[in-house]
Amino acid sequence: MTRDTDIDKSTARDANRAELLIDTSCQVVTHNATRAGARTDEVIKHDHRQRRGRADRQTEERRVQDAIEKDDLDNTFKELSEIDMTDLEAVRKQKEQIATEFSKQQRSDPSLQIGWTRAERGSNEYKVIHGLLYKRTKFETDTVNDLALVVPKEHRKDLLIISHDMITAGHLGINKTKDRLLNYFYWPGIKQDVANYVKRCKACQLTAPVKTSERAPLQSMPILDAPPMSNITIDVMGPTMNKTVRGNRYLLVLVCNTMRYVQAYPLRNLKAATICDKLLHAFTMFGIPSKIFGDNMSSFRSELMTSVCEKFGVELCYSSVSPNLTWSYRKNAEKFGRYDKKISTNEPK
């Protein structure tokens, strides 16, 4: 009986101990959960504070930027309002004075009297606009209603010099010089005046190629079914050309075998790196060609040139005498050479 009682007491103590352990474990779990929840709330609050801080900083930056832009705009308007308009007014008066003087010269030129008479009778060919005499031409001019300004004798020689002798004019032939003038100007006998002036040009006479009576038989040219600048021929001109201020003595000439379009790049030397650099510039302008023709020049056959073309998928074709060089390139190369000689002829020694 006593033993049974001891067993019951031991069982009761174990049960109480187990309940105590369970209660303790629950309290620990609850405490840990509470601490974890508190930490989570703190992290969320900290993240919200960071976001608000970033938003506030961005708002402040935008406010400062808007203020700067507003100040810049205000300063710009202030500068515009303070511009001295007297210079513009002087320029406007000067232009009006020049136009008035030009109109007087038109009126006093005997060769233009028939134009004034027809314009005053309502002719559709001659028009008077702002006091100046214009003539409608069959050319597509860059002026309003395709009207070319009628030029009196006092200014014709200056226009011939500008359209033919200047460096930007290039000492072109009779037809191109005539077309260039007729885009903007007209006077009676302009075509004959242009022809006489070009024929008497000293630079053109000194550099004109010697014409021979031999004529090669006509041959059929291959027709290329290729997009523009996808099939090109390259070659180098020099060193017989005049050395520029930047030290350029050569020209890298690119000719589109489809359109016969010519593009030239100045070169200081014939290194492969220099030529590849100019070719990459051409690629950025016109696109990457599929085929390039060239002669057996060492720079064209260099490892660098080969690597660049392989990198871009360009086929290199070498030949001592390329059929594409016989017409398109050589014809344009002669033009470049003559132009260089004409420019050097006019330069002071």
Can you characterise this structure?
The protein is of the alpha/beta class. Among the domains are: 100-207, Endonuclease III, domain 1, CATH 1.10.340.70; 231-341, Nucleotidyltransferase, domain 5 (2-Layer Sandwich). It contains 10 helices and 9 strands. It has helices spanning 2-81, 86-108, 113-120, 153-164, 174-182, 190-199, 202-207, 272-286, 303-312, 325-346, and strands at residues 126-129, 132-136, 147-150, 185-186, 231-237, 250-256, 262-267, 291-294, 315-318. A 5-stranded mixed sheet has the order 7-6-5-8-9, with helices on both faces. It has a 4-stranded mixed sheet with strand order 1-2-3-4. β6 and β7 (262-267) form a beta hairpin. α5 (174-182) packs antiparallel against α6. The N and C termini lie far apart (143 Å). The mean pLDDT is 77.
SSE blueprint and pairings:
Layout: H1 2-81, H2 86-108, H3 113-120, E1 126-129, E2 132-136, E3 147-150, H4 153-164, H5 174-182, E4 185-186, H6 190-199, H7 202-207, E5 231-237, E6 250-256, E7 262-267, H8 272-286, E8 291-294, H9 303-312, E9 315-318, H10 325-346
Parallel strand pairs: 3-4, 5-8, 8-9
Antiparallel strand pairs: 1-2, 2-3, 5-6, 6-7
Helix pairs in contact: 5-6
